[in-house]
Amino acid sequence: MANTAQARKRARQSVARNKHNASLRSMMRTSIKRVRQAIAAGDQAAANEVFRKTTSVIDRVADKNIIHKNKAARHKSRLAAAIKAIG
After folding, report:
1. 83, 51 contact by CB (below 8 A)
2. Rg (CA), the chain
3. Which pLDDT band holds residue 1 (cuts at 50, 70, 90)?
4. Cβ distance 67 to 27 under 8 Å?
5. What does DSSP assign to residue 87?
6. What is the average pLDDT score of the chain?
7. Which end of the chain is more exposed for a tag (fewer CB within 10 A), N or C?
8. Can you say how many angstroms the Cα of residue 38 is from the centroid of all Cα atoms in its chain?
9. pLDDT of 81
10. Other CB atoms closer than 10 Å to residue 71's CB: what's the count?
11. Helices 69-86 and 5-41 sit at what angle, rounded to 10 degrees?
12. What CA–CA distance (Å, rounded) separates 64 from 58?
């Protein structure tokens, strides 16, 4: 248990921040799954539309340092390649 007032406050902040970051990370994973589902359905137009929104979500999460920028780039690259492979 934290002994100083500062340490107690930092622990409270950490819990709140962890909750918020987990929410954003979950949102990103869900949007990636939606792209994967559109790819599996074989609909390139729908996959492109969902991919455009997902790219925005991935970039937003990376800008907040919840995931590394290279991981964001890797996700976007692999999704784009999978969409391109449909057609």
Report:
1. yes
2. 17
3. confident
4. no
5. -
6. 96
7. N
8. 17
9. 97
10. 13
11. 10
12. 10
State whether residue 70 is helix, strand or coil: helix
Domain encompassing residue 38? 5-86
User: For a pLDDT cut of 70, what percent of the chain falls above it?
Assistant: 100
Give the total number of structural domains in the chain.
1
User: pLDDT tens across 53-73, in order?
Assistant: 999 999 999 999 999 999 999
Question: What is the CB neighbour count within 10 angstroms for residue 44?
Answer: 16
Question: Which residues, 6 or more positions from 27, have their beta carbon under 8 angstroms from its beta carbon?
Answer: 57, 61
| CATH classification at residue 62 | 1.20.58.110
**Cα–Cα separations (whole angstroms), residue 61 to 28, 31, 52, 57:** 7, 12, 15, 6
Of 29, 28, 30, 15, nearest to 63 (Cα)?
Answer: 28
